Amino acid sequence: MADSDMLAAAFEEHRDHLRAVAYRLLGSMTDAEDAVQDTWLRLSGADTSEVENLGGWLTTVVARVSLNLLRSRRYRHEEPVGDSWPGAAEAAARAGPAAGPTGAGPAARAGDPEGEAVLADSVGLALLVVLDTLTPAERLAFVLHDMFAMPFTEVAAVLGRSADATRQLASRARRRVRGSPSPDRAADLARQREVAAAFLAAARGGDLSALVALLDSDVTLTADAVAVPSGRPARLRGADLVARGAVLSSGRAGDSRLALVNGTVGIVFAPAGRLQVVLALTVGAQRRITAIDVIADPGQLRRLRLALLPG
Predict the structure, then answer these.
(1) Mean of pLDDT over the chain
(2) What is the rounded distance in angstroms from the CA atom of residue 56 to the CA atom of residue 74?
(3) Which residues contact 68 (CB under 8 A, 6 or more apart)?
(4) Of 158, 246, 168, 253, whose CA–CA distance to 204 is shortest?
(5) Cys-Cys with 83: which of 30, 43, 139, 219 at CB 3.0–4.6 Å?
(6) Of 246, 296, 290, 293, nearest to 266 (Cα)?
(7) Is the pLDDT of residue 181 over 70?
(8) Residues 120-151: pLDDT tens digits?
(9) Residue 106's closest CA among 148, 142, 69?
């Protein structure tokens, strides 16, 4: 076997773990895959003859790549759009310290049904929301140390800070994560997801009665000028009227997906990965939708924090 083949094989042993680290750091599977690919390119061009722990070396590289992406995203006020939740990556992220950089291989393998099932877990949704509120440095310190058991000295080297400063970053992040998600918040996200999934399924099937049942009798729908053919903002009120509007738009439902929209569950229409419309939903305690905000203005879409969900 050629040296390049051996290097590629060694990299593949760590791919799932690297994807898990990058996903937790970036909250975007698309960005995570880009970070892993960049890590491979750096490995293929580096002299690793004196590297004793390839897993640790690769984890450090993917963390630095991810940190640069996080900082760049903040400077440009961009958020990931058009990506989906991972399977093996999420399973690896949940595997705990065994997935750390000192491990002998990846923490989880693709195609694990149990790993796939955790994607719908409400605590996972809530944690993603909380991680998105951290600064890049806080997120990196918390994820690498608390989720992947990387020593603070190694995390500090990635951040270019002292070990004590890195401990403080992780401590601040830990307090915010422990403060939220609360059980109520996790349950609320689970309720939102259940209702949004049912609404999307009913819209896809053009099921008027099912749509009406999911809507509060006094529900309001507001749409910006770009979302309305007339070019003027619109407002609908009442379950029957809003449900009929959803049936008329059922053609879009097939290309629509559930997503986190600024920390709550909504629906996005992004054919071929090109974001066009977002439905921000408000779900009441009675498991009915009380408000729908239809957003299609490009400027508003760019300011939204989005991450696609399974379902």
Answers:
(1) 80
(2) 27
(3) none
(4) 253
(5) 30
(6) 293
(7) no
(8) 343 466 677 778 778 999 999 999 998 899 99
(9) 148
Q: Which residues contact 193 (CB under 8 A, 6 or more apart)?
A: 120, 122, 125, 258, 265, 309, 311
Residue in this structure with the two tokens 């997503």, named with its chain if needed: 259
Radius of gyration of the chain (CA): 21
| Average pLDDT score over residue span 156-172 | 95
DSSP-derived secondary structure letter, 262:
T
The answer to whether 88 touches 111, Cβ cutoff 8 Å, is yes
158 and 249, same domain (yes or no): no
| C-alpha 152: how far from chain center | 25
- The domain boundary, picked from 119, 154, 181, lies at 181
Provide, for the chain, the percentages of residues in helix, strand and coil under a 3-state DSSP scheme, each rounded to the nearest 5: 60, 15, 25
Domain boundary among 181, 207, 241: 181
Angle, CA 227 vertex, CA 221 and CA 228 arms, to 5°: 85
In the β-sheet with 215-223, what is the strand arrangement from edge to edge?
234-237, 215-223, 289-295, 277-283, 264-269, 256-261, 306-308
Are 172 and 30 found together in one domain?
Answer: yes
**Rounded alpha-carbon distances, angstroms, from residue 34 to 31, 62, 183, 263:** 5, 10, 34, 24
- Whether residue 153 is found in the same domain as residue 122: yes
Residues 161, 86: Cα–Cα separation, whole Å: 31
Kindly state the average pLDDT of the residues 162-171. 96
The string of pLDDT tens digits covering residues 210-267 is 999 999 999 999 999 999 989 999 999 999 999 999 998 888 888 898 888 888 899 9
The dihedral over CA atoms of 224, 230, 235, 240, expressed in degrees to the nearest 10, equals -120
Q: Determine the structural domain holding residue 94 and report its residue range.
A: 3-181
